[in-house]
Amino acid sequence: MKLSIFLLMLCALMGCTQHNVTLPPVSGEPQPVNTPAIIQELTSHV
Fold first, then answer.
1. How far is the C-alpha of 13 from the C-alpha of 7, rounded, in Å?
2. Alpha-carbon span 18 to 10, nearest angstrom
3. Within the chain, how many helices (H) and strands (E) appear?
4. Residue 16: what pLDDT?
5. HSE value, Cβ hemisphere, 13 Å, CA-based, for 9
6. pLDDT for position 29
7. What's the pLDDT tens digit per position in 11-38?
8. Three-state DSSP class for residue 46
9. Which contiguous run of DSSP H or E holds residue 36?
10. CA–CA separation, 25 vs 3, rounded Å?
11. Integer CA distances (angstroms), 1 to 4, 7, 9, 21, 32, in order
12. Angle 30-35-37 (CA atoms, 0-180°, nearest 5)?
């Protein structure tokens, strides 16, 4: 039973990945995600 559910989900995921091969175009200016200010903000909560 678990194997059949696993195979069904795998088939569904493989079908989705085949249809969405190309990524949509990006608009705007890319923003860096690893600036020192952002890293400090993320590590201050740890």
1. 10
2. 12
3. 2, 0
4. 60
5. 6
6. 83
7. 777 766 555 567 778 788 877 788 888 8
8. coil
9. helix 36-43
10. 38
11. 5, 10, 13, 31, 46
12. 125
d(CA 21, CA 11): 16
pLDDT computed for residue 33 by the predictor: 80
Tell whether the model's pLDDT for residue 43 goes beyond 80. yes
Task: Give 26's DSSP letter.
Answer: P
| Euclidean distance between CA atoms 46 and 41, whole angstroms | 10
What pTM, to 2 d.p., does this model score?
0.33
Task: Give me 1's structure tokens.
Answer: 């039973």
Cα 30 to the center of its chain, rounded Å: 17
Q: What angle do CA 17, 33, 16 make, to 5 degrees?
A: 5
